[in-house]
Sequence to fold (158 residues):
Amino acid sequence: MRELRKGLEAYLAQRQLHGTTEFRGWLGGTSQLGPNPHPSLDWLRQCLQPKCVAWLNFGFYTYDSGSDTYTRTGGHWVTLVGVSAAGRVNVHDPARRAGLTPSTQSVLLEVLRSGTLSGPSLSPPLPARGYFRVAEGLALPRSHPVAVLDGVVSLRLP
Fold:
């Protein structure tokens, strides 16, 4: 996520465009890059305003119910294209498993109330509370049964 944001900022500078990037979520084992580390549905709606775009990173996790731990094993980027009042986010998913023709995926999110996020890039592990878990709608790889919205990078032009 850090590299995507740096790349966007370099692109803006190279093109002499005035814009801002923002990040919500965890990054490099920390969860505080602003006043609200978790992406909220209201914040995602703001990313749909004119001259704004957002990319969502869904981490792929295995879940151990005994320890209430989500262990990250991979991840995937999608583009945000809508947010419904019912808590669904609409995304364009470039993964082949999402279909052979471009389409919009309607993803139902649920807020995690407990648990821990862990994995090789999370040291120390983070509380999962407040992050979104995919309840339905995202085409997941068979080897990764759980997806958590790890973070969002937005780009806003004036």
About this structure: Residues 2-156 form one domain.
